[in-house]
Specification:
By secondary structure, this protein is mainly alpha-helical. The protein has one domain. The chain has helices at about 10-40, 45-80, 85-110, 115-120, 125-140, 140-155, 160-185, 190-215, 225-230, 235-265, 270-305, 310-345, 350-365, 365-380, 385-410, 425-450; strands spanning about 410-415, 420. A two-stranded antiparallel ribbon has the order 1-2. A hairpin with a 5-residue loop joins strand 1 (about 410-415) and strand 2 (about 420). Helix 15 packs antiparallel against helix 16. The radius of gyration is 22 Å and the shape is globular. The two termini are about 20 Å apart. It holds the Pfam family MatE.
Length: about 450
Amino acid sequence: MTATPSVPLADWRQVLKLALPALAQQYLLLFIQHYDQFLAGPFGESHKAALNTANYIYWLTTCYAVVISAGATALVGRFVGANDRHMANHTTGQAIFLAVVMGLIATAVAWPFLPELLSLLRLKDAAPQIAAAYLSPLVLMVTMQLIETGGIACLIGAGDTRTGLYVLSGVVLVNVPVAYFASRGFGGSELNFVGIAWGTALSHTIGGLAVLTLLIRGRSGLKLTLANLKPDWPLLGRLLRVSIPAAADSLSIAACQLWFLRIVNDLGNEASSAHGIALRWEAFGYQAGGAFGTASMAIISQNLGARRPDQAARGGWMMFAAACGTMSFMGLMFYLFAWPMCRFYSPHDENIAGLGVQALTTVAFAMPALASAIVFTQALRGAGDTRVGVFYSWFGFLVVRIPLAYLLTGREISLGPFGTIAGFDMGLFGAWLAMLVDIWVRGLLFLLRFSSGKWKRVKV
């Protein structure tokens, strides 16, 4: 069924209508991370280092979910843009089916291997065991979080960024008291610490149930039925053709981030704790980019479905401009207020706070390039142009960030049969300097790709 498209033109009103709820949604997720860090405060440096590493690994869930979300947003957006609601609903059902299958696979595969995975990350003292215990409830209940993510991705494709905000508001309202009482109300410190993760796992489970309920009732023109949950292999193939390269990109980034974290963990628990503090503040910048990137997926996929590629491009550039301005302002705040920000999470240890300040003031200069990398990655995904981004990510991390991080952080670098070379021994600052260079390289690459306009001709 087709009809005259009713997709709104790309203008600042439409940009803000899509982006502001997505921005609030990103900051709610960020609030949970900061709240968990606050609850972990009394447990000591090993627990803080474990939480930082556990959050990195839990980030794999977000990257893994891209197998569902990228294709779901792109296809639902195309069908909504073409006013084909039947196929939009059918795609929604396939995305939920895929979320259930992938969630069950993730639990079955990840659960037995958590200790082995954590052993590769060079955590010190008791931190590996603590991180494994923390991750267990999150892995156990990951299916419902994937359903939550997949359903919200479909709604974003339909131009609805508000429902995700409402759902995640409920997630926060559940998480705050549950995590607090679970982390304070039991006997041993290890059990208390894992209570933080139970708050996150249970709240996202409720979020997944809420998304299912809304879709069954027919939210934003998308209605989930049993018939649409039956596997449609050709449609699943179309969805995965977009999602798999995007997921490969996200998972490659996650794997490289874990490699980067291993380099940081080799610097000791102080550096690892400071790294985690700086990352949490930096997140106020990149989560803003994520919000504008999410909105760009909706506006680009719908306008391409409506056969208005020029409006799609205009929307992408407007989202980048808004993200760049917002994130550059955040960068200025990082530079000016790095010391009180880092002292907030480390009031009793000036060494950790000082290391955090070095990292945060360094990444302040990366914000414009990070806006480009994030927004244009999402914009290209909305167009279904997901293959090139994988190579950009590999180049940025494997050719730039990781080699530079070894060179700048170590005293002596082993080159195997070629001997050794002297490193710069710059510690955590050297690692974040390598990150800065990588972000600028990838930001420029993604900007050039979007500027080329080749994404307008991609078929999904």
